[in-house]
Design a protein that fits this description.
The structure is a homodimer of 450-residue chains. Chain A is an all-alpha fold and 450 residues long. Chain A has one domain. In chain A, 74% of the residues lie in helices and 0% in strands. Chains A and B meet through helix 2, helix 3, helix 14, helix 15 and helix 16 of A and helix 2, helix 3, helix 14, helix 15 and helix 16 of B.
């Protein structure tokens, strides 16, 4: 691939980076050495071959999403250390723990309720649901290296895939959804309102959200299925824990403060990562965490290294013109197709291109305009094309462990290996595509979108 | 400080950042919480007050020097894990271990020999001398939390302060020395040749290098002073270790390869950090280090966090015009002084301004031009002014634990606390100033520099 001719519009280094990135992804699949090592070699090769200057090669380590992920692990550490996570977990179990499925639905509903007010799906999961889900696993004695199947892998995968669908539901439930709306306005002149977006998403979305826990329940059956004693056990455990300790109260206060700043961000424009590091700063000052807890939080540094490397490579592919060239090539090819196969191909290629992205935002920025443009020019009704592509911009994040912020967080918890992650991701993606096209298209006709 | 009026030429946020940076430094001195926490709060405040955008606030974590420091800890981990460090340590002890002073001089001489060919003092120490010195400490049973005074704090401080002087010795023994020469050429028209630089530095430099181990020997006396048995003990230990293991040989090979690429960098221009991460990459591929060793290397992440934060703040002070404004203010004030006090004040202010810098390069970039300019205009002979300022650009790095790349490396080893580090740094700085002015000035007269 290294020696491929450089297409016009692509910078010379673009093809080299594409070769390194592809080799890294193949390495992640074949795994001659561990994941971190593979990505690290990718970073080294990028710098050593002068494909990117060393400064840009390291740029992923200063990426705001990467640091949001780092803070997720630090916040989760606070939940574990103070015992607050354990307490919340037992409260969830007490209320919803009669069955694993019920527990899972209760978490999905919680995220659903929170989502319209919290556009960063990484913050939503890293700051809130990951710490709770992780604590729930431990409360059931399900650890990554000790019976992950007990309930951990089920809860982790369900929450992750539910988040992907929840991100698609509202204009404000994923950070880059407004960007998709903005691009739509620029290209088609149509303004997608909050209500239009939600109306179109709610039916297929709710069907997806109902089916995902059931599907994953079949694919990764938790050993704990029903537990009639769970309520009593949880009550006993909560009694044993006694009243909240001072550190738990402090952490709970920080938690709500951070949540409040996140939810009100429209009013003050404080960046989601700023709020997150502010929360960690408070945890340090108020002695919820010691500095030694922070530097020993291996999962955080692991995720920073491998996800930071992938973000750098995937992001630079866009900058060097590779994605633009790919989009244009595909577009110019599809424009000669009849309407229906063209539309299906546009949606599928757009969806599965996400194997090459480490961020929904990056994918929308790089590919949404060209693909929307071509869909409209082959004759797809503009609002239909825009909404379908916008929803798919979220749904496509189910396929890898680096597809969007929450992916490295849940993946790095260690409950699911990469092969299983990709396999289940693919199955869920097929189910979502069937639902959102098969039910979505007729439903949107009813809604009057086309 | 936050509410100070903004001088012209300084961006509005500059004074805010100055306030945060100063508060951070005061925090480092008073230590209401640990160092890492203080710097983290500084980072949080920088972002939260919108003094810098969050992207720039995180920029220190993508800094090439910061990553050179991270690799230093990873390379040292390889030396420890394979036992190669222990072996090299015992070879040093066998050859020079009759006295602690002798051992220390042998290390200083080794760095002296290597230095003209290796301009990055961070790589020189992080990649070569830190792993050896750290292994020596352990070979003597001197660990940070268990008898650091035995020999560790002595060896660490001596090597650090010797490195500062060695950096000043040659045009090519510190990465930014050629920059000082370049600025000199631009301002005064005088070209400082390699031989001129070395001739001027060699006499005061050698005096400094002879006195530093003696001074630190007095200030931080090692408990192990003379050891007539050390040769026999070292020989026995080496015999016990037997032949080199495969991993040791592999690491030694990587070590020499990295050294070779560093030394030949004039020919291929591979960035010093690229070479360093390449070395770490080889260590991963050739299984000298596991990925789990890397993510568990707390010292590396500690240094990345606190040094990365300080580099970001100190670097941005320059960009926002604060340093330029400071230099110009001082200059315009000094220009009315008589020659001798003006010269001494110029040199002293230039020197101790380094409390506000986390890099020699940054200091030279930000302050060398203004201070050279003013020295020349008050009537100091240009070559004298240029050389004195250039040498001081290196020597000033003795005063803090964040002054230059090797500082966080040796400091984070944990043998010397911050108060002692600053105290001894100040004493060494006074000694160096006396030597380089008291002996330097007359000697440079003899050399015909003025």
């Amino acid at each position: 691939m290294w020696f491929l001719p450089v297409p016009s519009g692509v910078e010379a280094n673009g093809i080299h980076l594409l070769a390194i990135f592809s080799a890294t992804i193949v390495g992640l699949i074949l795994k001659p050495i561990g994941m971190g090592g593979i990505v690290f070699i990718g970073i080294v090769m990028t710098a050593l071959t002068n494909t990117l200057p060393i400064k840009e090669t390291l740029s992923g380590f200063a990426n705001t999403t990467v640091w949001l992920i780092v803070t997720a692990f630090l916040i989760a550490r606070g939940f574990i250390k103070t015992g607050l996570g354990r307490r919340i977990a037992f409260i969830f179990i007490k209320l919803f723990g009669r069955s694993s499925l019920g527990l899972s639905y209760s978490l999905v509903i919680s995220e659903f309720i929170l989502s319209p007010a919290m556009p960063s799906n990484t913050a939503r999961n890293g700051g809130i649901f990951y710490p709770i889900v992780r604590s729930l696993c431990s409360a059931y004695g399900s650890e990554p290296d000790d019976s992950p199947q007990k309930i951990g892998s089920f809860l982790i995968l369900t929450q992750f895939h539910a988040d992907i669908v929840i991100s698609a539901l509202f204009l404000t439930s994923m950070a880059a959804n407004p960007l998709a709306a903005e691009i739509t306005k620029n290209i088609t002149g149509i303004e997608i309102m909050w209500t239009t977006w939600a109306l179109g998403a709610i039916l297929p979305g709710i069907i997806s959200l109902i089916l995902i826990p059931l599907l994953i329940y079949k694919l990764v059956p938790p050993e704990i299925k029903v537990s009639s004693k769970s309520k009593t056990v949880a009550e006993e455990e909560l009694k044993k824990m006694g009243k909240m300790k001072k550190e738990e109260k402090v952490l709970l206060g920080i938690f709500f403060l951070v949540l409040f700043i996140w939810i009100t961000s429209n009013f003050h424009n404080i960046h989601v990562t700023t709020t997150a590091i502010f929360g960690v700063g408070l945890m340090i000052v108020l002695r919820v965490l010691d500095w030694s807890d922070i530097i020993a939080e291996k999962d955080a540094w692991d995720a920073m290294l491998w996800f930071g490397g992938l973000v750098m490579m995937a992001g630079s592919l866009s900058k060097l013109g590779v994605i633009g060239w790919f989009s244009n090539t595909v577009s110019s090819y599809l424009i000669n197709f009849p309407l229906t196969p063209a539309l299906i191909l546009i949606l599928l290629i757009y969806f599965y291109s996400h194997y090459g992205f480490a961020s929904m935002t990056a994918h929308i920025t790089a590919m949404f305009p060209a693909f929307l443009g071509v869909a409209v020019s082959v004759g797809v009704p503009p609002l239909l094309a825009a909404l379908a592509l916008a929803y798919f911009s979220n749904l496509n994040a189910s396929i890898t462990h680096y597809a969007t912020g929450p992916a490295p967080i849940y993946f790095n918890a260690g409950y699911v290996d990469q092969i299983k992650w990709w396999k289940i991701g693919f199955i869920v993606s097929v189910m979502n595509i069937i639902i959102w096209i098969g039910i979505g298209f007729p439903y949107w006709k009813l809604c009057g979108f086309w």
